[in-house]
């Protein structure tokens, strides 16, 4: 692990200043108030009365201030009263045997006073300040000598340590690792590069969907290169006041240069790096910060040993100036892992978990197409939690499969009650999907169907397994997918002659596929190879905007409807031809609530 180094929050002088300020305020405002409070003001008549009653201890007549200060017999309380023209006062006091006019109210010597009000507090606070600052520095150093106090940029600082993240811990992103290992080599051996006159890229941009291991790669790079690693998120640069962000950038680069060779990692760089041409989202502070970043990246010479790494999942939105050679001139794509990658990631994360011997990672990887590294890490952890819940010492295949279902569909709803009728409809719906899929592909298309309600709101679902990684999809395969999606609704219509709301998710997916076929894949004869839609953020759920005219748009809509409708009819026909099997399979599912892929194919092929 790279040890994070926490910086001491403020310089020690700062504490002393605050302490002195507090003391001044205390002495000038609070002390007089307290002193005042200790002396009780009374009427002159009360003074006379107390004198007569023999309750007065000592008296000080203060002619200059026109006041009399006196104490009670026990000399515990001090009183004050205004002077009144009273010729008999001295006589009266004398007769009563009260000492007067002397210095009664014991004033501490000025020296002692000064010591108590100024020197003592300063000493106490200085001592406290010293203890606190010592503690802070100790924590910052993590007990070691490698303390890297990082100024005001707010970056988290890591120092190299033996058990840090290494490239081996990041699986399934071999291409990215290859790109980065060159940088490791450079940081180890800069001379070799200088000899040839090769320049290292100043900046490397890691691009990919969330959770694919970009941060991990950056840390692994620092771990491999054994150099300090500064990590900061782009959003931390964006401040309320214009100029502060730029200041932070300056500070970051200053520190980095001092600590070279080192790696600076800016996560979510799109927070500051957004294209300046975008008037809608323009913002003075962000632009200044970006300009500063651009200047700083230009400002340090080649081969200084500082490598800037940045990560983003919205490369489209970045300012072109940031991407030009000399700045982030190398782009490393970190994509969602493929089948083999998923298997490797599962194995990496399984290393720290006690797994049963018979766990087949390949099956799990096939069950989780589209899962990111972070999802897979989560699946392993959910499985481990499930094993603990069941008081077992190791994680089984079943735990893993169940945890995929949890990640996809949520927990099993404990008290969900489905009426008999609903349960029957859901059985037919789910078998409808599977049956259409099976008769199109002639192989086991499913891993499992269940009709146990889940917390995500799914009443039942079909877990599909990909036999192998798909890179290309033919038009025919896409159409088959749409037919499979419409199979649920078709089964309801065929058997119950009525339709339910259960198909909404299928409708959404089927429409998306049909829409993409027409607008992006050029799979409709009327439009040919024309792009009718642009995808804005390829990694962020793929929001897209139409590039077609309103007139063409209307035609697109019509074409999409036709595609889905055609596939629905195909699915309906398949189910109609196999109504017996549909009844048989749905009956089985209704009774057992779960059916595996093998059981499904057995019933289907058992003519
Ligand atoms: P990103 O920065 O791309 O959003 P992270 O690097 O923060 O993603 O990854 C989050 C977590 O997901 C990591 O801590 C790790 O547990 C897991 N993870 C992601 N990708 C991988 C991978 N390729 N290999 C191993 N673990 C991964």
Report on this model:
It contains 21 helices and 16 strands. The chain is α/β, with parallel strands linked by helices. The chain has helices spanning 12-38, 44-52, 89-96, 110-141, 174-188, 190-196, 214-225, 244-259, 270-273, 284-299, 320-323, 339-350, 361-367, 373-389, 397-409, 420-441, 475-496, 504-519, 550-577, 579-592, 597-605, and strands at residues 3-5, 39-41, 56-62, 67-72, 78-82, 156-159, 203-207, 229-233, 262-267, 306-312, 330-333, 446-450, 461-464, 533-535, 544-546, 594-596. The strands form 4 sheets. The protein has a 7-stranded mixed β-sheet. The longest helix is centred in the first third of the chain and has 32 residues, at 110-141. Adenosine-5'-diphosphate binds at residues 170-173, 210-216, 311, 345, 348, 373-374, 377.
Distance between the termini: 60 Å
Which percent range describes the beta-strand content?
5-15%
Uncertain runs: 140-151
Task: Compute the CA-based radius of gyration.
Answer: 39 Å
Q: What is the total number of structural domains?
A: 5
Report the sheet with the most strands, covering strand number, pairing sense and barrel closure: 7 strands, mixed
Mean pLDDT, rounded to whole units?
81
Task: Find the CATH topology of the largest domain.
Answer: Methane Monooxygenase Hydroxylase, Chain G, domain 1
Structural class: alpha/beta
CATH class of the largest domain: Mainly Alpha
Number of strands: 16
Strand order of the largest sheet: 1-6-8-9-10-7-11
Please, what is the CATH homologous superfamily of the largest domain?
Answer: Peptidase M41
Instruction: Give the second-level CATH assignment, the architecture of the largest domain.
Output: Up-down Bundle
Shape: elongated
Q: Provide the list of bound ligands, each named once.
A: adenosine-5'-diphosphate
The percent range for helix content is 40-55%
Query: What oligomeric arrangement do these chains adopt?
Result: single chain
**Number of helical regions:** 21
């Amino acid at each position: 692990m790279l040890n994070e180094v926490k910086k001491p929050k403020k310089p020690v002088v700062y504490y002393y200043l605050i302490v002195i300020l507090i003391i001044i305020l205390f002495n000038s405002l609070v002390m007089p108030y307290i002193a005042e409070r200790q002396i009780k003001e009374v009427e002159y008549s009360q003074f006379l009365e107390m004198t007569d009653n023999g309750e007065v201890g000592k008296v000080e007549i203060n002619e200059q201030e026109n006041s009399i200060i006196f104490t009670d017999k026990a000399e515990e309380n001090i009183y004050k009263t205004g002077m009144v023209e009273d010729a008999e006062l001295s006589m009266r006091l004398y007769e009563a045997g009260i000492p007067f006019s002397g210095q009664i109210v014991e004033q501490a010597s000025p020296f002692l006073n000064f010591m108590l009000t100024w020197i003592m507090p300063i000493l106490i606070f200085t001592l406290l300040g010293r203890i606190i600052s010592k503690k802070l520095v100790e924590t910052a150093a993590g007990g070691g000598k490698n303390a890297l106090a990082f100024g005001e940029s707010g970056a988290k600082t890591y120092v190299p340590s033996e058990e840090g993240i290494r490239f081996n811990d990041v699986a399934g992103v071999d291409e990215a690792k290859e790109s980065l290992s060159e940088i490791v080599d450079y940081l180890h051996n800069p001379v070799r590069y200088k000899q040839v006159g090769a320049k290292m890229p100043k900046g490397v941009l890691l691009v990919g969907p969330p959770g694919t291991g970009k941060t991990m790669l950056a840390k692994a790079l620092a771990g491999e290169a054994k150099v300090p690693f500064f990590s900061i998120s782009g959003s931390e640069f964006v401040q309320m006041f214009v100029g502060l962000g730029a200041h932070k950038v300056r500070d970051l680069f200053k520190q980095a240069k001092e600590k070279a060779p080192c790696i600076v990692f800016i996560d979510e760089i799109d927070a500051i790096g957004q294209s300046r041409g975008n008037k809608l989202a323009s913002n003075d502070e962000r632009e200044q910060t970006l300009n500063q970043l651009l200047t700083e990246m230009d400002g340090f010479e080649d081969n200084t040993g500082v490598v800037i790494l940045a990560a983003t999942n919205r490369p489209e939105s970045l300012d072109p100036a940031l991407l030009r050679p000399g700045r982030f001139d190398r782009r490393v794509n970190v994509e969602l892992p493929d089948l083999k990658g998923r298997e490797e990631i599962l194995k990496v994360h399984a290393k720290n978990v006690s797994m049963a011997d018979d766990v087949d990672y390949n099956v799990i990887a096939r069950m989780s197409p589209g899962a990111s590294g972070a999802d897979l890490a989560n699946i392993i952890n959910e499985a481990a939690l499930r094993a603990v819940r069941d008081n077992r010492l190791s994680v089984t295949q079943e735990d893993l499969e169940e945890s995929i279902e949890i990640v996809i569909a949520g927990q099993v709803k404990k008290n969900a009650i489905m009426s008999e009728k609903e349960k029957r409809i859901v059985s037919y719906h789910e078998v409808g999907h599977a049956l259409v899929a099976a008769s199109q592909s002639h192989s086991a298309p499913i891993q499992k169907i269940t009709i146990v309600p889940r917390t995500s709101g799914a009443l039942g679902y079909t877990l599909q397994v990909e036999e192998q990684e798909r890179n290309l999809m033919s038009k025919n395969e896409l159409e088959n997918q749409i037919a499979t999606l419409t199979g649920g609704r078709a089964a309801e219509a065929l058997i119950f002659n009525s339709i339910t709301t259960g198909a909404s998710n299928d409708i959404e997916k089927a429409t998306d596929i049909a829409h993409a076929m027409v607008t992006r894949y050029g799979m409709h004869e009327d439009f040919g190879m024309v792009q009718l839609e642009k995808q804005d953020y390829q990694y962020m759920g793929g929001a897209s905007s139409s590039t077609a005219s309103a007139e063409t748009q209307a035609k697109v809509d019509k074409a999409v409807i036709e595609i889905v409708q055609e596939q629905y009819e195909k699915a309906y026909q398949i189910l109609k031809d196999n109504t017996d099997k549909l009844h048989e399979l749905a009956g089985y599912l209704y009774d057992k609530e779960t059916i595996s892929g093998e059981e499904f194919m057995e019933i289907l092929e058992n003519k």
